């Protein structure tokens, strides 16, 4: 347990701490024992434990000297929890705090779950001690400070036959053996980020040292340089008077949009520095801002440095990596996209992403300018939107707002031969991984799923209709799993926040690398932790993304065998629960860890909850990356089959 010792010496810095250590350890033990009882029953949910991962574990038949003689007996289960619901736990100051809720207890529920847990839970215990030696990784060339592997693959881009549709901004990942094998360097003079909410208005120049956007857009009141910082006055190409005025105008034009209640998740296309999303956040709306890595290349990097949800993505030839009916509102302000090209194939992608009854907000010159060419563009847009059954709800000034229908009846009642056609009924609109765009209208589900989500904030914990469409081979009801997952993470995050000082760490950009139903993000939201979470749903598992969006959270489909479409140094916390035990069968663990290092901001943290058999290797790689790892027990105690590896990427 060398790692535990390291962890301890990390914290033991002050004398005061030493004095309270005994009390702290004692109370933590009590906490873990109680938690053990609960989490024991919750652990075997399909997302965080995979029976096969233990069965196929290479060291499952090897017993290391430490455990060969006598594997330590599991502590006897504590007696059933008494009626008391409160437990003491040590707070940030090391004092005992009384207000720790363990939560309610439902014995019938436990029985239901015990069936799942029977499926080969803890086979491995004490394996994985065979240390694998990993050489320290070297720094890459300085020219690679903003390197995004799949978007900067020049060799592949040069080979493209066609570039007219924006193919060069799409993913072209380096092939086998050509993946990143060094640490992406930070720019000269990189500083610890300015904390949210201050970062909404200013970021360090040295962290994103690019003046191109200021030169191009400085006059539009977006962005300015002041001494050693960039300032964001909250303007934008179309909202010269500030984002707040603009948002007021939209909500007055169509009161049914109802920001923060009916409209919870928005998409901002071609977002500038994401001021739309940054300001809409105060209205309790989460906006995902997307833009390609093009000539204004650092838009998304600025957005993420500010602490606003953003990702590199492009409307070109492939589907975006978000599910159907994901966004309640999609916004495009002068986003320089030709929505009518190729039979409206790009607007049909917007239509797929838009929730039934959702709104498309278009702020652009053709809406209000009377020049002939612009008028023609407006006519084309009017014609296309009519054919795909969107209703023009309001046009005022430079803003036009359309609404998508609630069901298929309008599509089916069109004259025969009207283009674009409806998609095949066997086309799955949630199948997005490297899928080409289709020039057809995605059907809405006949049962109305997705059209009637609960209003925010109740939406966060309400099991949505589309839960029923997730293909899970579970013997208990999906609703129970959904609720159990929420409860499980709520308990864990509450513990993390208190025991590991998350409030002081003030994570802003958070990624859950294997999100399940989004319980981790929901818990952070519920506990009012001021951050946003990118919920990544790996292609190797069940597609739960529709459920995540229906809860009012954001996320994306991804395959961790490939790099992620974000700039280096953009996340403060990477959370990976049960990720490596699944993906190790598909790809190289060190490649995933290198990618994590690329995405992680200096000063950021990594929390890995996974099988103890993997911890030796993960720790070795973490050291090679220059992180400071520390191994901790889960709530199940020291002999559980899972552990938590916490890593610190120091500035
Ligand atoms: C695991 O078991 C297989 C077959 O039972 C055996 O060939 C192999 O050597 C064992 N591995 C170790 C590390 O003991
Ligand atoms: C447990 O699983 C078995 C078969 O898989 C089933 O017959 C039984 O009803 C299940 N029990 C519960 C409580 O779900
Ligand atoms: C380019 O076109 C050639 C011939 O049509 C084809 O074989 C090749 O696969 C294409 N390359 C790409 C990258 O699409
Ligand atoms: C946003 O949500 C919080 C918590 O639910 C609430 O207190 C606040 O009033 C909401 N703000 C707006 C503008 O609706
Ligand atoms: C958009 O594409 C259509 C069809 O390709 C073309 O007629 C139109 O001129 C384009 N509009 C703009 C603004 O480029
Ligand atoms: C379909 O939606 C329209 C509104 O878009 C509504 O008027 C109509 O009643 C709905 N039809 C059915 C069958 O639900
Ligand atoms: C929408 O959902 C609510 C409950 O969330 C339900 O009461 C209502 O009947 C639903 N409406 C439709 C049209 O399905
Ligand atoms: C995984 O990738 C690293 C380089 O990132 C390489 O050194 C190692 O050999 C690879 N491991 C396997 C099992 O392919």
Automatic annotation (TrEMBL):
It is found in: Golgi apparatus membrane; Membrane. Keywords: Glycoprotein, Golgi apparatus, Membrane, Methyltransferase, Signal-anchor, Transferase, Transmembrane, Transmembrane helix. Residues 59-85 are annotated as: Disordered. Gene3D superfamilies: Vaccinia Virus protein VP39 (3.40.50.150). Its EC number is 2.1.1.-. One of its GO terms (cellular component) is trans-Golgi network. Residues 59-69 have a biased composition (Low complexity). GO terms for molecular function: methyltransferase activity. Residues 70-83 have a biased composition (Pro residues). GO terms for biological process: methylation. It is a single-pass type II membrane protein. The chain crosses the membrane at residues 20-38. The keyword Zinc does not apply. InterPro entries: Put_SAM_MeTrfase, SAM-dependent_MTases_sf. PANTHER family: METHYLTRANSFERASE PMT10-RELATED (PTHR10108:SF1144), SAM-DEPENDENT METHYLTRANSFERASE (PTHR10108). Belongs to the methyltransferase superfamily. This is Methyltransferase. It comes from Rhamnella rubrinervis.
